[in-house]
Predict the structure.
Amino acid sequence: MALQVGIVGLPNVGKSTLFNAVSNNAKAQASNYRFCTIDPNVGQVDVPDPRLDKLASLVKPDRIVPTTIEFVDIAGLVKGASKGEGLGNKFLANIREVDAIVHVVRCFEDENILREEGVINPVSDKEIIDTELQLKDLDSIEKKFQKTERAAKTGDAKAKVEVEVLSKCIKHLESGKNLRQLDMSTDEIESIADLCLLTLKPVLYVANVDEQSLHTGNAFSSALIENVKLENSAVIVMNNTIEAQISEMDNADDKQMFLEEYKLTEPALNRLIRSAYGLLNLITYFTAGVQEVRAWTIHVGWKAPQAASVIHTDFEKGFIKAEVIAYDDFISLGSEAACKEAGKLRIEGKEYIVKDGDIMHFRFNV
């Protein structure tokens, strides 16, 4: 599943520094001027999951394969982007392609880092981005509304329903609110899915604070946290520069010493990656054998045949049964054989909804 999370924000807030820290196979240029990032950088990121290592310690496979997410470093947006200012059209098109958004907000003062928006104000900075995305969504919806309204007047029942949904969205956007705050049914959301609306995408905020505020946060980050409460969005407080330094360390002992120096139990990036994974409503199941212990990404609520399809489409087409062991049972008993003997290996059919952490083996015939 090639799911993507876009890193967005105003120019010079620490987006590319965060991308450099979070990505394990790509490095973005981080410089002190607008539009340093023009074409989006894409990096594949391992999702940290200690369960994978625990499984591997028992199975002792030839290789360990974690699940991944793609992070996209998108050019900094400026006021007026919805009308093409700066790299507006390119920026907005790049956001449209991602599944979720990590919005980096500057929560530190540093006169050496260029800023054109005046005094540091994370709430107004966030609102600049929100407004531009809302205006772009409004433009997209109004264009569809005109076409759909004409169809509704001819008696098209589907168009009548869509007109109601579009009208509700227009009213909400005109009030200055993001569509993810609007109460809509699954059917209503699906009726406008073709528009790939920007403010409907789930968002995770990163409050990029100074080193002194790493553990406590500051007035800037507190203001941001208070502001996004109604969105039900999480805010991760971190120092992007420190995280970038940690990520560049290849030696495990050096990394551990650096973490201890800053009184960190783990890199904040781990929390960010896990939160992004959760933001996309994803869970993990595992396959475990002597050749490979591997994590697989699926959506919450997927049934066994759908889960099998991420290994190979033939697994879904020819699905017969799934052998399933709960993660806790495997860890406590120590092996697949022990789980079988204890009656902890279950045979599940096509209607089984896969649970996070399930260890699975699929039977199929094609």
Confidence is low (pLDDT under 50) at residues 24-39. Residues 122-153 form the longest helix (32 residues).
